[in-house]
Fold this sequence. Notes:
Order of helices and strands: HHHHEEEEHHHHEEEHEEHHHHHHHHH
Helix content: 40-55%
Radius of gyration: 30 Å
Strand order of the largest sheet: 7-6-5-8-9
Strand content: 5-15%
Amino acid sequence: MHLSAQDLQNIDEDLLRSLPRKDLVEVSILLVEDLKEAHDRLNQNPSNSSRPPSSKDPWVIARLEKEDNEDGFSDDDPVEGLLVEDVQEEPTETEEEPDHPEDKGNAEQGKGADGGKQKGAQGFGRTQQLPVTDTVRHIPDECEFCHREFGETAEFIARTGHYSIDIEVGGADNPGIRVTNTKHVYGDTLCACGQIRSTEPHRCEKESDWAVDLTEWHLIGPNLMALICFLALRMRLSRPRIREFLGIWLGLRISVGTINQCVHEAGRAVEPLEEPLIEEIRKAAVLFCDETSWKERGELLWLWVLSTATVTFFLIGYRSKKLLKRILGETFEGWLMSDGYWAYRIFKNRLRCWAHLLRKAKGLNESLDEKAQGFGENALAVLEVLMAAIYRAREGPREDLEKKYRFLLEDFRECCQQYKDVSHEKTRALAREFLNDWEAIFRILANPMLPLTNNEAEQALRHWVIARKLSHGTRTSQGSRVFGLLATVIETCRKRKACPWKYLAEVIAARRQGHDAPPLPQAA
């Protein structure tokens, strides 16, 4: 914009009438240019710019949803030919909502730190007493000294114990959820040789990166913890609303602090799965990357997604080349599909998403600026001709598209050179974007079977973009770490046609006992 708000305040009818003709023409030119730019901004929508889908008018969204339903497509259908609207700039899932006043001093806080008491808050014991559904005596298998096997009749002296609230999920013949309250008893077992073997709940070693314990000494069992993660991450419920759900439908009174502790402990449980997944990503033939803004206690960070045929990996961090190198290493040799962010240019086998370019070209074509219209119309025509040729090549006999459209590309490159220094900002930016990423954009002509859009990554972000809007991000670095780890496991399991929640419960149970996490399910 040429004129500031203060300039416009000073311009009125009297001033314009008093100006000499030459000065009046100059001011009029500036006003017209600013008016056209303002009109172009008002005309922006997700189909001709990088604005998010949620910025559409409600009546437009309703009409498009009706058309999608009539066509038989849903939001989850990954159709290559349909250009999925970008979610990158949309202000994804969080740690929790701010506590309601009723949460403070709540008499349902857990016992000490293990019960989920918030730091600095007054401690309370549990007031809800559930009937015991089962009692488990933890007796060793054999004597370490004489290797005599212990049985149920072995002499056992109880020393300590704890209760574990969990759920049992029925099958097809007996659907439903049953709440269990198991009493775990630990103590000393006496052997006939005179030796004493003691048992106690397993506690994983303290780790400096984690402020949450991973231990069998926990009120919440693995299946119930997986349910809590499901409500928090898949259903996008806040911690207070999860507490409300558990209280109404399962009759369980669990504090907000305990619920938050469950989510964080689950994140720590799945952490060992991260490195194998990164190694799998580095070996991928095709990798889709995208990023969207994320706030951690008000600080601007980015939620990254890296998606392959078998892995969907999430990470919250800064938007930098250093982070990409840390994940993909220096020698990633697969095809990398991305948007126009400059940090991706360090990888030689890079592809550019054509959906972004088409929207930007369409936006210029609808502009009131004459130069912008001309360049936008030209760019749209070139991309549409080449896109049609690519789809024909995928379905029919292979042909040398680079050779066939060489003169078209040469003419378009000259056009970009002509417009790279024009005064219209968006026209100049798009022309330079084509020139800077020329090889990444048009190398698909040599191999038409490569992906044409970044739909894979953008669809992976959709659920978490909605969650971010509800939650406004995370509060701590540990909360951001937990979010990335759990989202990775959840979406990777779903991509492999496996139930994330059953697998998550298995991981939590194994890690609490000090065992390695079971491997992720293989792709179907």
